[in-house]
Amino acid sequence: MTVNAPANASLAAPSGVYVICPTPFQADGALDLASIGTLVEFQVRAGVAGLAILGFLGEAHKLSSQERRTVVDTFVRCAEGRLPVWVGVRALGLAGAIEQALEAQELGATAVFAAPLDGASDAMQFEYYATLAKSVGIPVIIHDFPDSFGTEIKAEVVARLGREGGVGMIKMEEPPVGQKITRIRELAGDSMRIFGGLGGVYLLEELQRGAVGTMTGFAFPEILAAIYARFAAGDEAGAAAVYDKYCPLIRYEFQPKIGLALRKYIYMRRGAIACNAIRSPGMRIDDITTRELEAVVQRVGLAVDAPPLKF
User: Fold this and answer.
1) What is the DSSP letter of 283?
2) Smallest Cα–Cα separation from 203: which of 262, 249, 270?
3) Using CA atoms, how far apart are residues 236 and 126, in angstroms rounded to an integer?
4) Sign of the four-CA dihedral 4, 9, 196, 193
C-alpha cells in the first residue's frame, strides 16, 4: 500500500476522552455487529472525543484475523466520521504490527496505538516505533502498559520518539503516572502529547501534570468527558468536584481481571450493547458482585440503566 500522508497528518492536536470500547459478543460468543452500532451511538451521545477499539480490554487477542478486520470496519462505518476511531496494534514483530496498522488505515481508522515489542532493548523499541510510524500515513501512538505487556518503555525512549522518531503521542499507563508524565514532559517538551489511562483512576492528577486527555474504558464515559471539559475550560475545582463524586465507581470498575466484566454488564444495562458475554479466557461476575456493583452505582447517585447523562 502506498502511503500518501505523513505521520500525524490526519489527526491534529487530539485531546479529550478517547473511550476504550469493548468488543460486543452474542451469548454464543459470535461477534455482535448490531451492538457495535448501538455502542457507537451511545458514545456519540456521551460526548466523548473519540473511540479506541481493540485495546487490551477489547479482547483483540481472542479474535481471528477476519474478525479483527470486521470489527474495525464496523466501528468506522458506524462512526460515520462523527468520531475518530483509533485501533490497537499488538504483534510479535514489526511485520505483523505494520500489517495491522496498514489494515486499520485502509479501513478508515485515524490512528493506531501500538503495544511495545516483548523484551526488546531501548534501541530496538525506538526503531520499532519509528519504523512503524514511517510505514503508515496515520499517527502511531505508543501504548505504554507494562503491567499487562511486561515491557517498560523508558521516558527517555518516549521523548526521543517524540523528538526524532515521528511518534507524537503516548497512552501512558505506568504507575506512578504523575512522575512519568512529568519526566516525559521535561525531556520531550511539546513533541509528545500524553494521554492517561488506567480506568480514569488518576485522570485528575494526569491532567494536572500536563496530560491532554485519557484513553480508557469506563461504562459512564460522560463522567470522564465532564471532568476533562471542566479542566480544559480552566475550572479545576469543578473538574475535581465531578471526579471526587464519582471516584468510588471509577475505582470499583477498574478492578484487575474482572473490570471488563463489570464494564460490559453496565453497558448492557444501559442499552449500549445487547449482551455482556466475554470470550474465554476471561473472568465473569457472579450475583454477589453484580449486586455490589449496582450498590456502588446507586451510592454515587446514578442508575445502572441510565442513558447517557448530561453535565
Assistant:
1) P
2) 249
3) 36
4) positive
Backbone phi and psi for residue 232, each to the nearest 5 degrees, phi listed first = -65, -25
Are residues 7 and 139 in contact, defined by beta-carbon separation less than 8 angstroms?
Answer: yes
Name the residue among 179, 249, 185, 239 with its Cα closest to residue 219. Answer: 249
- Residue 12 confidence (pLDDT): 64
Residue labelled with grid coordinates 517524540: 162
Residue 10 to residue 248: CA distance in whole angstroms: 37
CA 169 to chain centre: 13
What one-character DSSP code corresponds to residue 299?
Answer: H
Contact by Cβ (8 Å): 32, 283: no
Q: Beta partners for 140? A: 112
Residue burial 273-310, b: 16+ Cβ < 10 Å; e: rest: bbebbbeeeebebeeebeeebbebbeeeebebeeebee
pLDDT for the residue numbered 10: 39
3-state secondary structure of 46: helix
Q: Which three cell numbers stand for residue 225?
A: 468527558
**pTM, full prediction:** 0.93
- In this structure, the number of other CB atoms found within 10 A of the CB of residue 253 comes to 24
Q: What is the DSSP letter of 28?
A: T
Q: Residues 2-25, buried b or exposed e (16+ Cβ, 10 A)?
A: eeeeebbeebeebebbbbbbbbbb
Helix (H, G, I), strand (E, B) or coil at 37: helix
Distance CA 102, CA 108 (A): 10
Is the separation of the CB atoms in 285 and 293 below 8 Å? yes
Walking along the chain (311 residues) 10 residues at a time, the average pLDDT comes out as 34 88 98 98 98 93 96 98 97 96 98 94 97 98 92 96 98 96 97 97 98 97 98 98 98 96 98 97 96 98 96 89
